[in-house]
Amino acid sequence: MWVNQIILAVIGLSGGLVVAGGLFSFIIELGVVADFADRTHTAEHILLYEDCVAIGGIAGNLISVFQIHIPNGAWLLPVFGLLAGIFVGCWSMALAEILNVFPIFVRRLKIVRYISVFVVSMALGKGLGSLLFFFKGW
């Protein structure tokens, strides 16, 4: 019985590490951290910034999963909201810069004719995935 629990724990931990690694790689690849370092003229500290992004993700997951209570932490909520808003805004701007790649990609692969099919397929997949997520009882 405990062997099954250990196997499930290893599988869950491995899956979580892969997903987290992919997310942090995506954030780093978008250039959000490098852009901040460039704009603040602190490029010599970029490894520290990347470590802070990873540590922040790990700490956030630990607090979320284990529901760690922070005594008298209500004053941290506006600070967290501000920092989370800044992060999401910077991430969305980095994604907007990458969207310039799609027209070139579409022309190179000569799929201009079927681009509407791809967009509709992605929208339907996103909608179906959301429905399945929110209506788990089906």
Automatic annotation (TrEMBL):
Does the UniProt entry include the keyword Ligase? no
- Give the stretches traversing the membrane: 6-34, 46-69, 75-99, 111-135
List, alphabetically, the InterPro entries matched. Answer: SpoVAB
Among Pfam families, the record links this protein to: SpoVAB (PF13782)
> Which keywords are on file for this protein?
Membrane, Transmembrane, Transmembrane helix
| Keyword field contains Transmembrane helix | yes
According to UniProt, the name of this protein is: Stage V sporulation protein AB
From which source organism is this entry? Faecalicatena orotica
